């Protein structure tokens, strides 16, 4: 069974650990993404989303800080703890990935509700290691409307300011959850290629969270990336979902020109029902072996790892450049 290195651009393990403080990142069976399962799946890079569960009520910055604290104390390798993830912050670090058996973590923010409209809080998140930001979850906030907000509006004036500040400091942007109007407004404003971290093809499964063909083409044209997601109802409208049901989404994205723009964005720990044989991150080898029955090895390696790495290699901020700016 093939077990190549994997980059996964979306999971909700941090919010699950926030709500369940007793869960151990090392081996809690309740976590789809834990250290033990990451080893099984050969996860080289895992994006950890900071998502504020609705049960918390109005999003506050303290909730964002709480999940950053969980990452620091329970997930990241420290001087006191040798088991966990290294943290990817800078382009220069990409050469280090693969030189150790330990996986790497990438911090993302899923919706800016918890920034409370304060752009300085966004800069603080960047300083604390967040490198990718989605403006919304499913509903409206101070920056933009999410896909389940019936009015379907785009970005607010403050949201536009936020995007411009992201451009300035090097925060990458994620359009999963944005309305179509918001998508196109962000596409016009963003100076860097953006991603859809966990969205599939609307043409294959017409769920509001999936991307329409013109959106997929726009991401491809800008050299962004699309994270294939394992949310069953984003894959197929009804019935049990198996790994083979992901193939039409892959076919559609490749048909539109995206064979080098496709990556993985599982949404593990953000779901309670699963694709059969793809119930946690340790089962990535099963996905690889299914894909290899249909596609060339070079393509599958790209979807699992190479396409995500090339995106980061082009778009992560450079530490040396930041230091030079700091001197000026």
Q: How would a textbook summarize the main sheet? A: 6 strands, parallel
Indicate the structural class: alpha/beta
- The share of residues in helices is 25-40%
- How much of the sequence lies in strands comes to 5-15%
Number of strands: 9
Q: What's the multimeric state?
A: single chain
What's the gyration radius in Å?
18 Å
Question: On the 0-100 scale, what is the average pLDDT?
Answer: 95
The termini sit apart by: 52 Å
Low-confidence stretches: 323-328
Sequence of secondary-structure elements: EHHEHEEHEHEHEHEHHEHHH
Global geometry: globular
Number of helices: 12
Protein name: Membrane dipeptidase
Organism: Paenibacillus pabuli
InterPro entries: Metal_Hydrolase, Pept_M19
Pfam family, one: Peptidase_M19
Structure description:
The protein has 328 residues and is of the alpha/beta class. Helices cover 37% and strands 11% of the residues. It has helices spanning 13-19, 35-41, 61-75, 119-127, 157-169, 180-189, 213-221, 232-235, 247-255, 284-292, 297-315, 319-327, and strands at residues 6-8, 43-50, 86-87, 104-110, 130-134, 172-174, 195-196, 225-228, 262-264. The strands form two sheets. Strands 1, 2, 3, 4, 5 and 6 form a six-stranded parallel β-sheet that branches. Helix 4 (119-127) packs parallel to helix 5. It is globular, with a radius of gyration of 18 Å. The N and C termini lie far apart (52 Å).
